[in-house]
Specification:
Blueprint lengths: L1 H35 L2 H7 L5 H13 L10 H7 L14 H7 L7 H27 L4 H13 L1 H9 L3 H16 L3 H5 L9 H13 L5 H24 L4 H13 L6 H9 L2 H20 L5 H13 L13 H12 L3 H29 L7 H14 L12 H4 L1
């Protein structure tokens, strides 16, 4: 019996090693691209006026005792500390975000920028590796394709240049999914706190995870822990912030940020006018109903479709947020692999190829138009493809948490 099992085990181990080598080799190529292909040089040029400088400025105001939500003070303060000229009168971020980044604001922005970039890239590389090993183990081509797209793909290197949250958000979603898969609901609640950084992008993700609570006990416990932790964080930060912060933020930020971005509402607004926004919201709601009705709560298929819809139906988002598509893409690849290795490989190559080749073309068009609204075609394409490919899973879809773990 051992003579039969051992060759199979050895082949499996060899495939896993090859997959790891393919993944880390592709990631290393991505790091080389970032370092020598232009993104790093551009990030260094923009260190004082990229998006991270705005994040840093909010934390810096708190460190120096300035109210970042005071419209009479923040604009001049941000300029005085050497960050980008704000395009709003108050800090974009809510108190729990600015307090969280305040430790980074204790060091010069140049140092903070390096820490932010290395932290995001490291977390993203480890999180994606964890997903691939969990959902599509021992498949070198798949691991290599996603590894190459991680930092060479336009959404990722764009996020690095701008110092955006995308890599950390993707890492948080991946860590949450992996912890739930391991039946660790309390552990899953901690990385979910990153959702509070950009709720306008993560709201449908939260709904999709909560939907799993209808069927799976692990998801129910997770939702309870997540709400408790988020409630504590929000309450403490809200009480610590100046009394007028929310009124000032609400007056200034939403009107500026919801008019134009790479989301369906903005695209349809440009195509057919204000009614397009209402149509976009109706289409997103209809897609959510279809997903909820079709896929078993808490299943891998349900997670993949909800997470894809979260990016396609976001309230406010740009192309760099499409880094989040790695998570539903890997889960979908894993589901397809249960049917056919060939189907899984085709989808993985198509998904990675879209981020590597289609996204840059759309971004180049956006540069010419000075508007990347129509980059929303990428997450819409992912969502439609994932729903179509997983449709046959239906209510019989496999639970995300194996029964032996959830028991």
């Amino acid at each position: 019996m051992n003579a039969t099992i051992e060759p199979v085990t050895l082949r499996r181990m060899t495939s896993e090693r090859r997959a790891d080598l393919a993944y880390w080799g592709a990631v290393a190529l991505g790091v080389v691209f970032v370092a020598f292909g232009g993104p790093l040089a551009r990030r260094l040029e923009m260190v004082h006026f990229n998006d991270f400088s705005g994040v840093w400025a909010g934390g810096r105001a708190i460190v120096l005792g300035v109210d970042p939500w005071d419209p009479t003070k923040y604009y001049d303060f941000a300029i005085s500390v050497g960050t980008k000229t704000p395009d709003a009168l108050v800090n974009d971020y809510w108190p729990w975000v600015s307090y969280a980044v305040a430790p980074l604001a204790m060091v010069p922005i140049e140092v903070a920028g390096w820490v932010w970039m290395i932290l995001g890239m490291t977390c993203a590389a480890l999180a994606l590796r964890g997903l691939l090993r969990a959902f599509v183990p021992a498949r070198p081509v798949v691991h290599g394709a996603f590894g190459a797209a991680l930092f060479i793909g336009q959404p990722s290197f764009h996020a690095i240049v701008l110092g955006q949250w995308s890599l950390l958000l993707m890492s948080g979603v991946a860590a949450t999914v992996l912890a739930l898969r391991a039946a660790r609901p309390l552990l899953a609640a901690f990385p979910s706190l990153i959702f509070l950084a950009k709720p306008q992008v993560m709201i449908i993700t939260a709904i999709g995870l909560a939907y799993g609570a209808l069927r799976e006990p692990v998801f129910r416990r997770y939702v309870g822990f997540a709400l408790l932790l988020a409630g504590i964080v929000v309450t403490i930060a809200w009480l610590a912030a100046p009394d007028t912060w929310f009124a000032n933020w609400l007056t200034d930020i939403p009107p500026r940020r919801t008019v134009r971005s790479a989301v369906l509402a903005s695209a349809l607004n440009q195509l057919i006018g204000p009614a397009g926004r209402l149509i976009a919201y109706a289409l997103t709601a209809a897609a959510a109903v279809v997903v909820a009705v079709r896929f078993r709560p808490g299943s891998d298929a349900s997670l993949a479709t909800w997470l894809a819809l979260s990016n396609a139906g976001a309230i406010y988002s740009w192309s760099y947020d499409q880094v989040l598509l790695f998570v539903p893409a890997v889960i979908t690849t894993g589901i397809l692999a249960r049917r056919s290795d060939k189907a899984a490989k085709r989808f993985a190559l198509a998904a990675a190829g879209t981020l590597l080749f289609v996204s840059p073309v759309l971004y180049a068009i956006a540069v010419l138009r000075h508007d990347e609204t129509f980059s929303v075609l990428v997450p819409i394409g992912f969502f439609v493809a994932i729903v179509a490919l997983l449709w046959r899973e239906g209510s019989r879809a496999t639970a995300a948490v194996p029964a032996r773990q959830a028991a």
